[in-house]
Design a protein that fits this description.
Chain C: Keywords: ATP-binding, Nucleotide-binding, Transport. The complex is a heterotrimer. Chain B is mainly α. Helix content of chain B is 75%, strand content 0%. Chain B is globular and about 70 Å long. The chains are: A mainly alpha, B mainly alpha, C alpha+beta.
Chain lengths: 267, 283, 354
């Protein structure tokens, strides 16, 4: 009896709180028909925002995955002075407000920042330009790969790697052929979380971007712009596109499990 | 010289190579992307002299914004505890029909970009929204008030509570409940004495994570919050406002206080958790 | 407190055979009963049904003649020790033990001091007087076992139910806690039902042994009776190593299929027909050979000494039959004309027929 009440309450809560938002995004996006919403994506500013977001995401994922793997290896395999401090430093961006994560880059490279004026004279633009957006996104997504890969790598143990070294493999070979295959699932998960966060980052990017339509507007910033300009269909169409991309990234983390189950069934 | 530096850093001898390379790479990466900006954050407020910093602290609007952020985050995280417990129970123990779907939906607030959540919640709870309209007929206004902030923070914080409690609940042996019943405990005693206490450390963790996320949250809140100074203006928004006024010192002061208090709260939550989980430590 | 189980039936949807198939059992006050059987036989199911933890479709469970309905009705009357002890991890040992008293309604709850005294008394009884303030995670397996027992006894139950209580302990602790448990049972005048898959354990502690198979009780008898007169070939095998020889009965004699087995006489009332002789290795003997009849057909090969017995293996046809001889019987001939299995039990269609 109690069980049925709790089932009902759980599903009611899930429906009201968690299901209505995505359903509403779609219904708002398609209010004037699918043609109208697709047309809003053809707008040059919208196109520019989509391309900029994809570009920033690609750079961020590449950099943070490469260095994240190296850091995970370092923290999993070696005990050294300052290890705990380094670990805390790598996790810090998780407990910082996105706005602060953007602000720090302005303090360094903004017009009133430490290095901003000097770089400006050399004609290098970071704040209110694409490099600033990349830096802010790198900052907020920095912990994900390390955090997902590190525990699994520690669990793996070092036996296989030591055996590979004794067999004459070089560092990169061991990393590529021994260490990474063992943490494949966690690495995929970390990369996808990085992707989802990089696609959707709003607060940090908003602070450093300068909001120049067609130039420094990512998809989330463009959504804000459209929404504040009462272009509801365009805003929610872009929101639906961005939401689907980010959700796909998050849900894809379960893909290896599905694939394994599917293969089990077919064999 | 360089060699001795690495030798000094390294504590245990393992046969694995790659220490220098990975340490170097990690230090460059984390140093440039985290430590370096952090230094700017810590140093910048004092750059214009202590007087400027003290002046920046004499700002009642800042304190109002900080209070709004912290109190809303605390209320939202606290409200998430009972709902989170219920959902965690349904997923881990209650054999909820359609569990796989519910399980995926729980992560939705984490996956949804904050700007998307922001405009969606603002529309949903707006005066003409699907949920806002029925609520306003009941005399409850959510959007453009403090309540809106709490609703948005509850939305983004929910997964933290569920995901913190769920594994602990799943690993709690079933026979604890049976043992308690056989010893004469009535249903409510089973819940309050046997099921909830072992979950408390996880609940505290979930609360702490949801709270920390809520304090710094920006994108999902600003659209629904109304953003009136002294009333419904959150601290992260005030940072943005100060930046638009080119008041870097003011912006940095808010940011620094926000960061310090957040870290203190996380430390407090950590120590509370340890105290509550004293029993779980093996000899 | 006596326990009466009457025609208990428990089925699960989807499964063909019932988990408990019309099980009836009477345990008089003060008796120590062991439920044994292979895994999946229904021992734990029966124990949990007696405790009221699982619902059953038909039948009744009565304590001292009163039919029990729900698990609440049994609370405090039945002490249950779970396989993994189910100690509350967040409570100290003392609070764990006191739990059954702490949850009583305020009107019937004994005062604090009395509860504390009861806890101290139980800790003493369990020989762990200093562990009151420790948490379960810091205890060894044997200590957890004692705490679980103390908690089950705190409310003064008349019946103690133990579900594989020694499963998680190492062999040495197992043995000592087993005799201690029997001693405790006698001192407190409990009625105890113990589930185990270890027949030796059961034979050692219990007054009566109930052998279960496929949700049914196969035999319910004293250890001695069980050893002498196993009801089925399964019981015979379950209680210890046994060797079986198929053959047939004819005219009051049992003839095994193997030539190397000496035919032996059986009671005349046994009808002619196929039968299986089953025997324990230490009951097998060698028939001495006449001195002048060539090489011996049966030859025992030594396989070492264990537990006071010399072990041998005898090649009979295609298989190797184990054969034990008490150690003090020295200088035994290791060759013979045939194997003597006249102490075997006879089974026909799986049931004892002797």
């Amino acid at each position: 009896m109690t069980r049925y009440v709790l089932w009902g309450a759980s599903w009611l809560f899930i429906l009201v709180v968690l299901v209505t938002p995505p359903v509403m995004v779609l219904s708002e996006a398609l209010r004037d028909g699918i043609g109208a919403s697709v047309a809003t994506l053809a707008d040059p500013d919208a196109q520019a925002a989509i391309w900029l977001t994809l570009k920033v995401t690609l750079i961020t994922v590449a950099v943070n995955t490469l260095f994240g793997i190296l850091a995970a290896w370092l923290l999993a395999r070696f005990r050294f002075f300052g290890r705990q401090a380094l670990l805390a430093l790598l996790e810090l961006p998780l407990s910082m407000s996105p706005v602060v994560s953007g602000l720090v880059w302005l303090l360094l490279f903004g017009a009133q920042g430490w290095f901003g004026p000097a770089l400006e004279r050399m004609n290098i633009h970071i704040a209110f330009a694409v490099p600033g957006i990349v830096l802010a996104t790198l900052f907020v997504t920095l912990p994900y790969v390390v955090r997902t890969v590190l525990p699994v790598m520690e669990l793996q143990g070092r036996d296989a790697e030591e055996a590979a070294f004794l067999a004459g493999a070089r560092f990169w070979q061991v990393l590529w052929y021994v260490a990474l295959p063992g943490v494949r699932g966690a690495l995929l998960s970390g990369v996808l979380l990085t992707t989802a966060r990089a696609l959707g980052e709003f607060g940090a990017v908003s602070v450093v971007s300068g909001h120049i339509p067609g130039e420094t507007e990512t998809m989330p910033l463009h959504i804000e712009n459209l929404y504040n300009g009462y272009q509801s269909v365009a805003a929610f169409t872009m929101a639906a596109l961005l939401g689907v991309l980010a959700m796909a990234a998050v849900l894809l983390r379960a893909a290896p499990a599905w694939f394994a189950r599917w293969r089990e069934k077919t064999i | 010289m360089k060699h001795s530096f690495f030798a000094f850093m390294r504590k245990t001898g393992t046969s694995l190579p790659g220490f220098r390379l990975t340490l170097g790479a990690t230090l460059v990466w984390a140093g440039f992307l985290v430590a370096f900006p952090l230094c700017a954050l810590l140093a910048r407020p004092w750059q214009d002299g202590v007087g400027a910093m003290v002046a920046a602290l004499h700002d009642s609007r800042m304190f109002a914004a900080l209070w709004t952020s912290f109190s809303s985050a605390a209320i939202a995280a606290a409200c998430n505890v009972p709902f989170g417990l219920m959902l965690a129970w349904a997923l881990a123990r209650g054999q909820l029909p359609g569990r796989w779907l519910a399980d995926a939906l729980i992560d939705l607030p984490l996956a949804l970009p904050t700007a998307v959540s922001g405009i969606t919640l603002a529309t949903l709870y707006g005066p003409n929204g699907w949920l806002g309209a029925p609520l306003s007929r009941l005399g409850i206004t959510v959007s453009y008030t403090r309540a809106g902030i709490v609703v948005a923070l509850m939305f983004v914080g929910l997964p933290f509570v569920v995901r913190a409690v769920e594994p602990v609940l799943r690993n709690l042996p079933h026979d604890l409940e049976e043992a308690a019943v056989l010893l004469g405990a009535r249903p409510w005693q089973v819940v309050t004495r046997v099921l909830v206490p072992p979950l408390l450390p996880a609940v505290v963790t979930g609360f702490g994570l949801a709270f920390a996320r809520g304090v710094g949250e920006y994108g999902s809140v600003i659209f629904i919050a109304g953003n009136q100074p002294f009333r419904s203006e959150i601290a992260p928004l005030l940072i943005v406002v100060r930046l638009q006024e080119f008041d870097y010192a003011g912006a940095t002061a808010v940011a620094l206080i926000l960061l310090v208090i957040s870290l203190l709260v996380l430390l407090l939550v950590g120590s509370m958790r340890r105290k509550l989980a004293l029993w779980s430590e093996p000899a | 407190m006596s326990v009466e189980v009457n025609a208990l039936l428990r089925t699960v949807p989807g499964a063909q055979a019932p988990l408990l198939d019309n099980v009836s059992l009477h345990v008089p006050d003060g008796m120590f009963v062991a439920l044994v059987g292979p895994s999946g036989a229904g021992k734990t199911t029966l124990l949990r049904a007696i405790a009221g933890l699982d619902p059953y479709r038909a039948g009744t469970v009565s304590l001292d003649g009163h039919v029990m309905t729900g698990v609440q009705a049994r609370a405090g009357k039945i002490g249950f020790v779970f396989q993994n002890y189910a100690l509350f991890p967040h409570m100290s040992v003392a609070r764990n033990i006191a739990f059954g008293l702490d949850v009583l309604p305020a009107a019937t709850r004994p005062p604090r001091a009395q509860v504390a005294a009861r806890v101290a008394e139980l800790l003493d009884l369990m020989q762990i007087p200093t562990l009151g303030q420790a948490y379960p995670s810091r205890l060894s397996g044997g200590q957890r076992q004692r705490v679980a027992l103390a908690r089950a006894l705190a409310t003064g139950p008349g019946v103690l139910l133990l579900d594989e209580p020694f499963g998680a302990l190492d062999p040495i602790v197992r043995r000592s806690i087993r005799t201690w448990l029997r001693d405790l049972h006698d001192r407190l005048g409990l009625t105890t039902i113990l589930v185990t898959h270890d027949q030796e354990e059961a034979l050692e502690v219990a007054d009566r042994i109930v052998v279960m198979q496929n949700g049914r009780i196969v035999q319910d008898a004293s250890p001695q009776e069980l050893d002498c007169n196993p009801a089925t070939d399964f019981v015979m095998e379950f209680l210890g190593e046994a060797v079986s020889f198929p053959g047939h009965v004819q005219g009051g004699m049992m003839y095994a299929q193997d030539e190397a087995i000496q035919p032996f006489s059986v009671p005349a009332h046994l009808a002619d027909g196929p039968a299986t002789a089953m025997i324990r290795p230490y009951e097998i003997g060698l028939v001495p050979q006449a001195t002048d009849s060539g090489p011996a057909p049966v030859r025992a090969v030594p396989r070492g000494v264990r537990g006071g017995y010399r072990h041998y293996a005898v090649q009979v046809g295609a298989r190797s039959v184990p054969f034990f001889v008490a150690q003090e019987r020295d200088g035994l001939a290791l060759e013979g004309r045939a194997l003597d299995i006249s102490r075997a039990r006879l089974f026909r269609d799986g049931r004892a027929c002797l």
